[in-house]
Design a protein that fits this description.
Layout (H helix, E strand, L loop, with lengths): L1 E5 L4 H9 L6 E6 L9 E2 L5 H10 L4 E4 L13 H22 L2 E7 L23 H16 L2 E7 L2 E2 L6 H11 L2 E5 L3 E2 L2 E2 H13 L8 E4 L6 E2 H12 L5 E5 L13 E2 L4 H7 L6 H14 L1
Parallel strand pairs: 1-2, 1-4, 2-3, 4-5, 5-6, 6-11, 7-10, 8-13, 9-14
Antiparallel strand pairs: 9-12
Helix pairs in contact: 1-6, 2-3, 3-4, 5-7, 7-9
Bound molecules: NADP nicotinamide-adenine-dinucleotide phosphate.
C-alpha cells in the first residue's frame, strides 16, 4: 500500500516516521515545511486540489492525518483558522480518499467532551460537548469526515507527549530541573498518551489490513488515570529532579482562556476488542520517553 502521512513534522507525525521504518508498505511523509535531515513532501491540507494531485500521482491507498491546529488556548482567538485546519482540511482529505476508495485515518481529541459533568470513562458514542474552540473544531472535523461517506478510522486521543516538539513532559522536565517550587493542578484528571504508542497502534492496524469493515471512532490513550499534578510528580521522579518541591493546586490558580474538562478519561474497550491490541500503562511509557529525551 502507499500510505501518506500529513503533519509529519509534528509529535505524532515524527513517531509515525519512526514506527514505519522498514515497513513493507510505502510511506510518504508530508507537512507544510521541510525540516533538515528529514525527507518531507510539501502538502498543505487546506488545499483540496493539491491533495487530489498527490493522491493520484502517488496512488495513495491510506492517508494518516497527523496535521492539525493544536494550540488549545490560542484557538480561542483564531477560531476561523482552527476551523479551517481541524474541520475543513480533514474534510478535504476525506473527499480525496472517498474519490479513490481509500481509507482516512484521522486523530481527534478528548476535548470533544467536557461540557457535561461526568465521572466515568467516555465511550465513543457519548455526545460531544466541547468547552472551547479547539474541541468544537475537532468535533466538526469528525462530523465532516463522516458526512463524506469515506472509509475512516478516527482515533480520539488525549494529553499527547513525545520527544518531539513542545509538550507538557518537556516543559515539566525543564521546570522541575530549574525551579525550587512548582504548583500543578490536581483537579483535572485524564490519561497521558505517548505519541509513539499511538503511532505504533496505527501502524500495526493499517499494516495488518485489520481496518476492513471497521470504519468508526475509537478511543486511544495510555492505560491508567492521573491528574496533571501526579503526571508532574512522575516526570520529576523519572528524571531524577528531586530538589523541586511540587505541590497540588486548583485550576483557578492558573486562569486560562478556555475551560478544560475536569474528568477526561477515555474508555478504550472498543479499540482493544476490535483490533486485539494491548495498550501500555502510562508510567511505563513515560519512563521510556524520558529515557529517549535524555539520550538525545
Ligand atoms: N497534543 C495533544 O496533547 C493532543 C491531544 C489530543 C489530540 N491531539 C491530536 O493529535 C493529533 C496530532 O497532534 P500533535 O501534537 O502531533 O500535533 P503537532 O505536533 O502540533 O503537529 C501538527 C503538524 O501539522 C502541521 N500543519 C499545520 N498546518 C498544516 C497544514 N495546513 N497542512 C499540513 N500540515 C500542517 C504542523 O506544522 P506547523 O507546526 O509548522 O504549524 C505540525 O507539523 C492532532 O490531530 C491533535 O489534534 C493532540
Amino acid at each position: 500500500m502507499n500510505i501518506l502521512v500529513t503533519g509529519a513534522n509534528g509529535q505524532l507525525g515524527n513517531e509515525m516516521r519512526i514506527v514505519s521504518r522498514g515497513s513493507q508498505d510505502h510511506y510518504i511523509f508530508t507537512d507544510v515545511v521541510e525540516v533538515e535531515g528529514q525527507e518531507t513532501t510539501i502538502l498543505d491540507i487546506t488545499q483540496l486540489e493539491a491533495i487530489r494531485r498527490v493522491v493520484k500521482e502517488q496512488e495513495i491507498d491510506v492517508i494518516v492525518n497527523c496535521a492539525a491546529y493544536t494550540n488549545v488556548d490560542k484557538a480561542e482567538s483564531e477560531p476561523e483558522l482552527a476551523e479551517l485546519l481541524n474541520a475543513k482540511a480533514p474534510e478535504n482529505l476525506a473527499r480525496a480518499m472517498k474519490e479513490v476508495g481509500g481509507l482516512l485515518v484521522h486523530i481527534s481529541t478528548d476535548y470533544v467532551f467536557g461540557g457535561d459533568p461526568y465521572n466515568t470513562p467516555c465511550k465513543e458514542d457519548q455526545k460531544g460537548t466541547p468547552t472551547g474552540v479547539y474541541g468544537l473544531t475537532k468535533l466538526h472535523g469528525e462530523e465532516r469526515i463522516i458526512a463524506t461517506g469515506v472509509d475512516y478510522l478516527i482515533f480520539r486521543t488525549a494529553w499527547l507527549y513525545s520527544e518531539f516538539g513542545k509538550n507538557f513532559v518537556k516543559t515539566m522536565l525543564n521546570l522541575t530541573a530549574t525551579k525550587p517550587q512548582l504548583k500543578v493542578v490536581f483537579d483535572q484528571v485524564g490519561t497521558p498518551t505517548y505519541a509513539y504508542d499511538l503511532a505504533k497502534a496505527i501502524f500495526d492496524i493499517v499494516g495488518s489490513r485489520k481496518f476492513d469493515g471497521r470504519t468508526g471512532i475509537y478511543h486511544y490513550s495510555n492505560e491508567g488515570v492521573c491528574s496533571w499534578f501526579d503526571f508532574t510528580k512522575m516526570i520529576a521522579e523519572y528524571a531524577g529532579n528531586i530538589s523541586c518541591d511540587i505541590q497540588p493546586c486548583h485550576s483557578e490558580e492558573f486562569p486560562s482562556p478556555v475551560k478544560r474538562p475536569a474528568y477526561s478519561v477515555l474508555d478504550k474497550t472498543k479499540v482493544k476488542d476490535t483490533f486485539g491490541i494491548t495498550i501500555p500503562y502510562w508510567t511505563d511509557s513515560l519512563r521510556t520517553c524520558i529515557k529517549h529525551i535524555k539520550e538525545q
